[in-house]
Amino acid sequence: LTIDKGATLALHDGSNGNITVLGETNIGGEHSGHLLFRADGISRTMSCNNVTLKGSGMGADNQLSIETGGTAGLLHQLVVNGSLTQDNGTIDLFTNTANGSNVALTFTGSANAHFNLTAGTVPDLFRLILDKGTTQASFLTVNAPLSLGTASDAAVKPLELKNGTLVLDNASTDHILSSGGALFTIPASTGLVVSKGRVSINTHANGIQLAGRLRVDGDGIVSLGNGTNNIRIFIQYQGLTPLLEIADNGLLEVNSQIRRSTSTVTGSLRYRQSGGKTILHGQHQNPGRAKLEIL
């Protein structure tokens, strides 16, 4: 599918109109193109393999976006079974969380893939969902700054890991994993690698539920409180497979403790540190658990 020559492909707002593209999807190339989700009508799903906003021609005018206006509060789905590359132009899939329509971006497929920003505006996303393969072995590397518009204080988070490993690799990323409602979850079949940028949690009785892999390397930062407030922010591991790794110049800072659940005695953590720094402040920790439990 190629959208070019100043053309706009708007997904149909009637009863039928989902689109599946088995090959490549290119926006622009010789001139410019626009792939548009509608603000009103019916929630649509577009499924495709690799998607590229081309940098050639009038690349700065290329757009992948949600239509402005409207009060339908639609939730569309863009499912990418490969890589998303922004060589120029604009990706804008978020309007607002009141009654505006938005597009959730899901990456699938078992092959390693990327989300790259070469030129153009910083992508403005609603939610990012990783559902690659069935294990941690399938990687998505995000080289674009991560900007997710939906609130992080609900049970469903702006960033959701279902399968595969997400690598954050842009120094401008500064993302709040959770601000309440539920812990941020890293399931057993998933991994989160923070190589550049920062992810954080700063609210009481909150933290990371770790059943899969959390790695902080490169110059990445995972900030779960800085010790200045007596609030409980923790990493809680479960099951027999959780893995926590610190390497290079990575920084992991935890306000309270790294521990098992307070409601069970089961759980086993593999902890590996070959560089970087781990800081445990012990603020408002649960007295029945150590600051660092490795079992």
How is the secondary structure organized here?
Elements: E1 2-3, E2 7-10, E3 19-20, E4 25-27, E5 33-37, E6 45-48, E7 51-53, E8 63-66, E9 75-80, E10 84-86, E11 90-92, E12 102-108, E13 113-117, E14 127-131, E15 139-142, E16 159-178, E17 184-186, E18 190-201, E19 206-210, E20 213-216, E21 221-224, E22 233-237, E23 243-246, E24 251-254, E25 258-260, E26 270-273, E27 277-280
Explain what this protein looks like in three dimensions.
By secondary structure, this protein is mainly beta. It has no helices and 27 strands. It starts with a strand and ends in a 15-residue tail after the last strand.
Q: How much helix, percentage-wise, in residues?
A: under 10%
Sequence of secondary-structure elements: EEEEEEEEEEEEEEEEEEEEEEEEEEE
The number of helical segments is: 0
Q: What is the general shape?
A: elongated
Beta content: 35-45%
Structural class: mainly beta
Using only CA atoms, what is the Rg? Answer: 20 Å
Number of strands: 27
Averaging pLDDT over every residue, what do you get? 97
State the separation between the terminal residues, measured CA to CA: 52 Å
